[in-house]
């Protein structure tokens, strides 16, 4: 326990502050802003002067802060005043204090004769040994932490008592301190090994009970004050009306168990409460708890950084220890000239000397080397002027990367994205050696500190994809009143894993046209942990969208210190001249047909930071394909191309030689559908229902277990306007019989002899009510059967497709092509000459052209020679593999665009057999593919075809989800 007795110090004339006061709901508070209020018949005046979260503000405002303390002291006199702190006086400090391990700040507080301070989480930044050793030894005031123990023992004092007043009027004031229970997540765990942080309210209550139990041997107090380094997240104007404060802080209690416990669970023996940690401003006269003899219990917090102080004036009856409150207010930092403050107040004069010496020493330390760069890293420039806040910069990227990387560890917030405001970037890192430097590329401590001089605390928050889009939209500025400010656009700095496109010609609120994080396009309901300085988290620079984030976490780091550590760890650092955002004007919003021309204008292609290469060309890539290279003129380019086939995993990307690689999204008109049954028979039925919803006069039926007959049936069925259905050898599946009946077909053509389809199956088909005629086309072998089918269906044809009877893949695409051209498909044996019966049939049909489906390996050259010798014009359609052959066959028969294309497996035939007939009938090609990806040659042909609809014939695993997404095999 510490007992500190007030003593009188010489002081000059007081300067009245004269600010508005707060009036308690049921107790009249003083309305006089200044002047002494001596002890009267009702008790002794205690003037409590509070601040919190000073964070080492050693700068041009330090003297004014000290002057404000002294002005408030002078109002009631030294003997009746206590100056107390809510913690975080050190840590997350400005450069001048931080580089000297906050010694100047402690010296300033000593000079001000700070009576006591709660411990804040930042007091533990350098570890418990530093706090209990160096800090305690330097500080003339106790640092109180009633809820913190080390290896089971208190880390220091829990409270301090002070005698205020003289003689019989003297009262004892106790200040109990407690630190946020979240401290372990806010500091380096290795520095606080063995330290436990308990419930702050329970700890305060235990001490308060001791101080009011009537036992003088363990300490007693007339007025008990709790200094909690914990508080509310509620944004209020200083000295807001009590009803506003009550509403906002009651709501804050619902959002924070910690603050609720402070308000509701702090024991009635505690007469007044001061807060810290959350950097908010309030002076709430909360209702006194049950058991208290007061009408109200003040709860006060004073923002941060010495910008405000809190004043609570109490009158305590020495006989009864009952307190009343005469004044509770927030006081802004004084505007009195510093020379006058120094001349008036000796303590301020001492503070001024300490501050000046600290700034001078910081300048010396600032010359020490910290890291290295390989080139200038700067803000955006306009001509020779720095700090163009409307443009992206190499410095913005570096700082945003630092935010993301330094706050990426889970105990720092788990950041995935870094965002910084351009106005926070206050200096450049120049490669050329500066004053006092002997080498180019050296970054000194002072140079790094000058970039981020505001000592913002670094926070993480969770944003949805939609909230991130809103934040980016707010770069086009509106103030809280909805007006456009003088800086109409502010460019946020983004970490290098974030890209976006925009179009400034679109309506406000809809200018962001796409966002990507780590290469993936952002969806509205995606979530990201975002690292930002506290300035932005509170909605600074009109980025109010960040206030909507959830799970806000203080990393315990300050920007300047984190930046210095980052430069030291990452050196040497090179400037990143790539852009993360491009204006792309003219992006289509409606789906664009494959192959349709697209024209875009791309603006602001290059950064304007020093050293940025000037782009002369802009490349447009789609996946691995270069769609074009376009000249850049005056930082702008016109990009013209034809819409490609949309392929899974591929994206449009605009690239420059300086490393820019920004994607954009554009809808391409392609509907992918799938026809698949539980087996090959049901799949054929689905194909039939899709192609012939209104019925068909004829149906071709072939074996579903053998492919040759169904191959040749496809073009014939297409010619006659009917589908191909598949059946089993011994019986027709019920679903097939039902489909024939639905179609209302009067004629059914069975392709194949009884070894392929039994007489029993034929009888089942004949028994269908609509069927009037059943014809069977069955030859001595598959080659004979193919001739019978051609002779049966075709009265004439200009040509014919020929395929090997022992291989199905080539025949699948050939069947669709034949159906489209109204040609038959004939099968040939690869081991014998072309039969005379085949050439005779072709002569009878009037065909003079032969297209051979397959390479010379599939259909030997001797077969082609036989047709040539017979007087036919022969073209071979064969590629390096079955997929290339499929593409070549399709390209030979179909001009683009087509309305539809079919895609079937090139490894298993059943699903594709019915698809070929339907495709041919609809003048649509059928291409084949692998089961798990699409060969690039097939993708190229699909792109050429420019079809708006792609129909997959067959389910998984015949055609996987990757195939449906057109995933390239390459």
From TrEMBL:
List the transmembrane segments. Answer: none
The record ties this protein, via SUPFAM superfamilies, to: 5'-nucleotidase (syn. UDP-sugar hydrolase), C-terminal domain, Metallo-dependent phosphatases
> Out of the domains of life, which is the source?
Bacteria
Coiled-coil segments on the chain, per record: none
Pfam families found in the cross-reference section: 5_nucleotid_C, CW_binding_2, Metallophos
GO MF annotations in UniProt: 5'-nucleotidase activity; UDP-sugar diphosphatase activity
The answer to whether the entry has keyword Plastid is no
The record places domain Calcineurin-like phosphoesterase at 48-280
Q: Which PANTHER family match?
A: 5'-NUCLEOTIDASE (PTHR11575:SF24), 5'-NUCLEOTIDASE-RELATED (PTHR11575)
Q: What is this protein called?
A: Bifunctional metallophosphatase/5'-nucleotidase
Which organism is the protein's source?
Agrococcus sediminis
């Amino acid at each position: 326990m510490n007992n500190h007795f007030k003593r009188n110090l010489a002081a000059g004339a007081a300067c009245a502050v004269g600010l508005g006061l707060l009036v308690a709901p049921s107790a009249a508070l003083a309305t006089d802003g200044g002047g002494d209020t001596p002890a009267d018949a009702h008790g002794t005046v205690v003037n409590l002067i509070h601040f919190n979260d000073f964070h080492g503000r050693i700068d041009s405002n330090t003297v004014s802060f000290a002057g404000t303390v002294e002005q408030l002291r002078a109002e009631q006199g030294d003997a009746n005043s206590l100056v107390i702190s809510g913690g975080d006086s050190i840590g997350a400090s400005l450069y001048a204090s931080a580089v000297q391990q906050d010694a100047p700040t402690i010296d300033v507080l000593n000079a001000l004769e700070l009576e006591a301070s709660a411990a804040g989480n930042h007091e533990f930044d350098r570890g418990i040994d530093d706090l209990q050793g160096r800090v305690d030894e330097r500080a003339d005031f106790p640092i109180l932490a009633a809820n913190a123990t080390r290896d089971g023992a208190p880390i220091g004092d829990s409270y301090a008592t002070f005698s205020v007043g003289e003689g019989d009027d003297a009262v004892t004031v106790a200040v109990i301190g407690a630190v946020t229970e979240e401290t372990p997540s806010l500091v380096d765990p290795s520095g606080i090994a063995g330290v436990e942080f308990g419930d702050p309210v329970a700890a305060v209550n235990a001490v308060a009970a001791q101080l009011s139990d009537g036992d003088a041997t363990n300490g007693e107090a007339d007025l008990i004050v709790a200094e909690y380094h914990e508080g509310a997240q509620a944004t209020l104007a200083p000295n807001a009306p009590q009803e506003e404060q009550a509403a906002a802080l009651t709501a804050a209690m619902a959002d924070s168990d910690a603050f609720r416990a402070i308000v509701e669970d702090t024991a009635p023996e505690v007469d007044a409460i001061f807060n810290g940690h959350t950097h908010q401003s309030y002076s709430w006269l909360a209702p006194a708890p049950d058991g208290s003899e007061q009408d109200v219990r003040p709860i006060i917090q004073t923002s941060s950084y010495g910008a405000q102080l809190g004043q609570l004036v109490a009158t305590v009856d020495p006989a009864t220890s009952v307190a009343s409150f005469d004044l509770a207010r927030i006081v802004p930092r004084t505007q009195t000239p510093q020379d006058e403050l120094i001349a008036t107040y000796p303590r301020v004069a001492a503070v001024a000397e300490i501050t000046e010496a600290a700034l001078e020493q910081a300048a010396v330390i600032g010359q020490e080397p910290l890291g290295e760069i390989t080139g200038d890293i700067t803000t955006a420039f306009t001509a020779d002027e720095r700090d163009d806040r409307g443009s992206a910069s190499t410095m913005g990227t570096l700082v945003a990367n630092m935010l993301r990387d330094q706050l990426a560890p889970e105990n720092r917030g788990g950041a995935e994205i870094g965002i910084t405001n351009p106005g926070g970037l206050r200096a450049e890192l120049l490669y050329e050696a500066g004053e006092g430097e002997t080498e180019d590329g050296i970054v000194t401590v002072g140079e790094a500190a000058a970039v981020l001089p505001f000592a913002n605390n670094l926070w993480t928050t969770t944003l949805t994809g939609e909230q991130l889009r809103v934040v980016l939209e707010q770069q086009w500025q509106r103030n809280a009143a909805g007006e456009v400010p003088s800086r109409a656009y502010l460019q946020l700095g983004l970490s290098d894993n974030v890209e976006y496109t925009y179009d400034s010609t679109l309506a406000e609120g809809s200018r962001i046209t796409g966002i990507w994080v780590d290469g993936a396009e952002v969806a509205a309901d995606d979530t990201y942990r975002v690292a930002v300085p506290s300035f932005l988290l509170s909605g600074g620079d009109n980025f109010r969208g960040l206030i909507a984030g959830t799970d806000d976490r203080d990393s315990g780091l300050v920007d300047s210190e984190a930046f210095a550590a980052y430069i030291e760890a990452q050196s040497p650092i090179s400037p990143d001249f790539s852009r993360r955002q491009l204006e792309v004007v003219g992006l289509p919003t409606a789906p664009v047909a494959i192959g349709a021309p697209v024209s875009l204008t791309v603006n602001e292609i290059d950064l304007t930071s020093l050293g940025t290469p000037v782009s002369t060309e802009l490349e447009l890539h789609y996946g691995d394909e270069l769609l074009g290279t376009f000249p850049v003129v005056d930082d702008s380019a016109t990009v013209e191309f034809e819409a490609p086939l949309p392929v899974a995993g591929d994206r449009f990307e605009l690239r420059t030689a300086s490393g820019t690689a920004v994607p954009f999204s554009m809808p391409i008109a392609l509907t992918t559908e799938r026809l698949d049954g539980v087996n090959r028979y049901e799949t054929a039925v689905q194909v039939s229902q899709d192609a012939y919803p209104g019925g068909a006069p004829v149906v071709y039926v072939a074996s579903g277990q053998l492919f040759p007959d169904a191959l040749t049936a496809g073009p014939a069925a297409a010619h006659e306007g009917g589908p191909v259905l598949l059946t089993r050898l011994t019986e027709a599946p019920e679903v097939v019989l039902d489909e024939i009946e639905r179609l209302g077909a009067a004629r059914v053509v069975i392709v194949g002899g009884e070894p392929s389809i039994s007489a029993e199956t034929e009888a089942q088909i004949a028994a269908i009510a609509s069927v009037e005629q059943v014809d069977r086309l069955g030859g001595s072998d598959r080659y004979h059967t193919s001739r019978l089918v051609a002779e049966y269906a075709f009265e004439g044809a200009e040509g014919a497709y020929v395929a090997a009877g022992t291989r199905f893949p080539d025949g699948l695409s050939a069947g669709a092509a034949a159906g489209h051209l109204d040609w038959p498909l004939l099968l040939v044996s690869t081991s014998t000459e072309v039969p005379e019966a085949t050439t005779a049939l072709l002569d009878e049909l009037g065909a003079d052209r032969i297209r051979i489906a397959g390479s010379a390996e599939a259909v030997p050259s001797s077969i082609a020679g036989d047709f040539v010798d017979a007087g036919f014009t022969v073209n071979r359609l064969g590629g390096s593999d079955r997929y290339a052959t499929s593409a070549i066959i399709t390209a030979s028969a179909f001009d683009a665009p087509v309305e539809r294309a079919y895609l079937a497996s090139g490894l298993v035939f059943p699903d594709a057999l019915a698809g070929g007939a339907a495709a041919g009938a609809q003048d649509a090609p059928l291409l084949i593919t692998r089961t798990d990806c699409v060969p690039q040659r097939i993708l190229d042909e699909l792109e050429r075809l420019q079809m708006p609809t792609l129909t997959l014939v067959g389910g998984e695993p015949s055609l996987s989800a990757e195939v449906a997404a057109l995933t390239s095999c390459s």
